[in-house]
Amino acid sequence: MKVKTISRSAASTQRETSGDVRIHHRNLNPAQHPMQRAREYTRAVTAAKIDRMFAKPFIGSLGNGHRDGITATAVSRVSLAPYVSGSADGEVCIWDLASRSEVGRIPGAHSRMVTGLAMDLEGRKFFSCSDDGHVKLWNLGANNTEAEADYRINGTFKSIDHHWSKSQFATASDSAVDIWDPTRTNSPLQSYNDLWGSDDTVTVIRYNPAESYLAATASADRGIGLFDTRSSTPLKKTMLSMRSNCLRWNPMEPNVFVVGNEDYNAYSFDMRRLDQPAMIHKGHVGAIMDVAWSPTGREFVTASYDKTIRIFGQRSGTARDVYHLKRMQRIWCVNYTQDNDYILSGSDDSNIRIWKAQASKSIGQSTTREETAVRYRQTLIKKYSNMPEIQRIHKSRKVPKLIKKQTALAQIQKEKVKRKESNVVKHSKPGSVQFKSERKSVVVKQVD
User: Fold this and answer.
1) 20 to 30 Å CA-CA from 215: which of 207, 251, 256, 344?
2) 4, 120, 104: which is closest to 63 by C-alpha?
3) What is the spatial distance between Cα 174 and Cα 158, in angstroms, rounded to a whole number?
4) Can you give the pLDDT at residue 142?
5) Shared domain check, 381 and 254
């Protein structure tokens, strides 16, 4: 009598070390697994529920905060630990993010509100500007209460930004846009007093990460513009329907920048086409006060007057996540850490808060098995993201009652406008009235 058996070598079934993955022999024929898609969908629903169950984005606050509302913050471009903040009473604080502790405090840094902060190239010193007309250079040392340099103008400074590759910084004031050399305190290198023939205040200035002579500005006359620091003539300017409060360049795609506007929306622009925004990012019910890009350039975070923080994808019109707290007041400034893991916010209640960039991500080192499980769950959620049940679980967020009411009211107003436009087209001569897209209606005019 013959007995046939299946024989395999020991190498095909045994692991060489205990850390290797176990080899499983499976029949991959789809006919043998008729319920595979149903099981996968059930796992996707479970993964979406787990993601929301472990979504606890708030980590904590830095020290005891300030005595007044926080109006400006800055992180280093070359280091993770240093972080500086300024408040409305002119106080500047230096923090260590690793220990979440205060390193130094300068009570009388300025006599009026701190309007801007910027780190230097090496991350060892920082600049602060204020409404008192002073820009001061400080050291990040613990017991440093005296400024190393003081730059003065007849007016008030509104914004400051350090160059990405050169030892120089730019300031925006109510009188001009100035380019400064840190070694010269008596006068700026260049001064632009009449940009586009407008005497309005330039409220924001930002250097381009790649083009060393290109800078972008936002002004009080509702304009956003580009100019070349080598020449005295501006390049482009676009007038929006309302004023922009903030502007940031994408660090990975330097031709793209985003502005936060008073009309509750953020607009992504391509600097080659300023006639219309590339994307409109909606969701806030208050003016956007600050924006910050993630180091990867794929997402940015917005801080709003409606007391919430929203995280948007670069090519997404709606927010991926919404952060809020019961005691958190209006948010004036926001930053990403250089490791892309945390978000820092400064609000009107004098506190600096730390948030996780991914709400459900665990803090600390994960094992290989945990990382594999997380990636598998995220893949399942992405695969079935269009299913109604997955959408309901994964995208729903609890927001304050006031924001929910204002969002519903804004939706009613939007439907009313659309209905009115459709009625005008319906009862007009064919071809005489046409719809105008929302992106094209954002820009009022262009100034060359």
Assistant:
1) 344
2) 104
3) 7
4) 61
5) no
337 has pLDDT over 90 = yes
Q: What is the CA radius of gyration of the chain?
A: 26
What is the DSSP secondary structure assignment for residue 64, as one 8-state letter?
A: T
| Alpha-carbon distance values, 214 to 7, 157, 208 (Å) | 70, 20, 6
> Which residue carries 């007093």 as its tokens?
193
The Cα 50–Cα 54 span in angstroms is 6
Tell me how far apart the 2 most distant CA atoms of the chain are, in Å: 107
Could you tell me if 192 and 320 lie in one domain? yes
Are 266 and 309 found together in one domain?
Answer: yes
The whole-model pTM stands at 0.89
Query: Burial of 204 by CB count in 10 Å (0-12 exposed, 13-18 middle, 19+ buried)?
Result: buried
b/e sequence 68-83, b meaning 16+ C-beta within 10 Å: bbbbbbbbbbeeebbb
CA distance linking residue 392 with residue 388, whole number of Å: 6
Listed residue (150, 196, 152) closest to 173, CA to CA: 152
Count CB atoms within 10 A of the CB of residue 407.
Answer: 15
CATH number reported for the structural domain that contains residue 112 in this entry? 2.130.10.10
Torsion from C-alpha of 85, 88, 89, 91, nearest 10 degrees: 10
| Cα–Cα nearest to 267, from 215, 212, 218 | 218
Sequence-ordered alpha helix ranges (H) in 331-400: 368-383, 388-395
Query: Would you state the torsion angle of the CA atoms of residues 116, 122, 123, 128, taken in this order, to the nearest 10 degrees?
Result: -20
250 and 157 within one domain? yes
The 3-state secondary structure of 230-284, one letter per residue: CCCCEEEEEEECCCEEEEEECCCCCCEEEEEECCCCEEEEECCECCCCCEEECCC
Claim to verify: residue 40 and residue 64 sit in the same structural domain: no
- Asked if 51 and 175 sit in the same domain, the reply is no
Domains in the chain: how many in total? Answer: 2
Count each helix (H run) and each strand (E run) in the chain, helices first.
5, 29
Tens of pLDDT along 51-80? 999 999 999 999 999 999 999 999 999 989
